[in-house]
Specification:
Strand content: 15-25%
Number of helices: 12
Structural class: alpha/beta
Distance between the termini: 43 Å
Mean pLDDT: 77
Low-confidence stretches: 1-19, 292-324
Largest sheet: 6 strands, mixed
Number of strands: 11
């Protein structure tokens, strides 16, 4: 086992050195076989949930570069469960302070289908929280996202009970950990750890067999991108008001993570309908869309394609034809009329973002006004991204000068 741990440490150290400095990172952590790799594969590499049973247990850390659009840009580090054991290894060469020295979030996965209560998983979670809080400096993960995973095997009442149980277990284990730390070190700031846990730890019930894991990861990304998410949400709210929409999302087309939604409440069923509309539009465009010779699809060079992961080339086979034409462009739109006298309307926002909105049939009659406002929305989003790119370029130039 020692040899295996040594390999894990080397992989992690190489990953730290190779990290792009200006990209936030999301660390996927948890015990072995909790479902971390399956979540990453399903959400970002479009592996079928049923195929994840064939995945082998991760033996080394995997780094996934997510650059789907000008908006969704971050890295995912998938930590194997064995790496969590190094917390107790005082002679380990693992530099945890350096691992946690980067802005972003930590997604900690707890397998609710495993033995219950999850004492070991909660213990490692609390140790991770304490280590992050005590890591020097401000450039470190600001949020902990707890995925109580594999809830597809539970009934609704059982799911709610598991959610309450995990929150209670974490609070109890945290009190024990703080008391032990203060006995060993009277200067240990237990209050800071408690305050962090009460404000920066969020709980999600997830499964790869439904939409819940995409919904949960969307909320993770919202907190990671911060101010930009707030800006686009504000613009989306104005669009909804002016067009009489009942609900609106801005989805990243490739991952189907929604980067923003308006403040109106919506049922889980309606969210799933909006979510599935992305697949409908892409699939129909890929089959019936105009060929590049007819001028209906913008040609995209292989170099321009976004990178889902280092080994994610097979995913593009489903989205990009032999000439590397992406079946989603400035002319992409879709309309679905529902039995509930509502209309689902999809419009392209930019190369990899789509607006999906829900309207009453009466509101959709004003399609000219809706299209005009959507056009203004697209212009504002473009201006926002252009400004972001300029600021990023200035930051890079200053960094190179220093």
């Amino acid at each position: 086992m020692a040899e295996g741990y040594g390999s894990l440490e080397e992989d992690a150290k190489r990953g730290v050195m190779a990290l792009k400095e200006n990209q936030p990172r999301i660390l996927l952590m948890g015990l072995k076989k909790s479902g971390k790799t399956s979540i990453q594969k399903v959400v970002f590499q479009k592996v079928s949930p049923h195929e994840t049973v064939l995945l082998e247990t991760s033996q080394k850390m995997q780094k996934c570069d997510i650059s789907n659009s000008s908006f969704v840009q971050f890295q995912i580090w998938d930590f194997p469960g064995q790496l969590m054991d190094l917390f107790d290894e005082e002679d380990s060469d693992m530099d945890w302070d350096k691992v946690f020295s980067g802005h972003g979030a930590i997604v900690y996965v707890i397998d609710c289908a495993d033995k219950w209560p999850p004492a070991e998983a909660v213990k490692r979670l609390v140790q991770t929280i304490v280590r992050v809080v005590t890591t020097p400096g401000d450039n470190k993960p600001k949020n902990f996202e707890i995925f109580i995973h594999k809830v597809d095997c539970l009934k609704a009442e059982q799911s709610r009970e598991k959610h309450s149980d995990v929150k209670r277990f974490v609070e109890e284990e945290l009190k024990i950990e703080i008391a032990d730390r203060m006995k060993k070190d009277p200067n240990f700031n237990g209050l800071e750890v408690s305050q962090f846990t009460s404000t920066a730890v969020h709980y999600h019930m997830t499964s790869i067999y439904d939409h819940s894991v995409f919904d949960a990861f969307s909320k993770v990304v919202h907190r990671v991108i911060g101010f930009l998410h707030e800006c686009i949400t504000s613009l989306l709210g104005m669009l909804v008001t002016r067009c009489g929409m009942e609900k609106a999302y801005v989805f990243d087309v490739l991952s189907k993570i929604y980067v923003a939604q308006d403040e109106h409440e919506v049922t889980a069923q309606m969210y799933e309908v909006c979510f599935d509309m992305i697949d409908v539009a892409i699939d129909i465009s890929a089959i019936y869309g105009c060929s590049s010779q007819a001028g209906g699809v913008d040609e995209t060079s292989e170099e321009d394609l976004p990178a889902i992961a280092e080994d994610g080339d097979e995913y593009y086979g489903a989205l990009v034809d032999e000439e590397h034409n992406f079946p989603f462009d400035s002319d992409s739109s879709a309309i679905i009329r529902l039995d509930s006298k509502q209309v689902l309307y999809l419009r392209e926002v930019n190369k990899y973002l789509a607006l999906v909105c829900l309207l009453r049939e009466d509101s959709f009659k004003k399609i000219g006004l809706i299209n005009y406002n959507v056009l203004q929305f697209k212009k504002l989003i473009k201006e926002m991204f252009d400004q972001k790119a300029k600021l990023q370029q200035k930051a890079n130039d200053l960094q190179q000068q220093t």
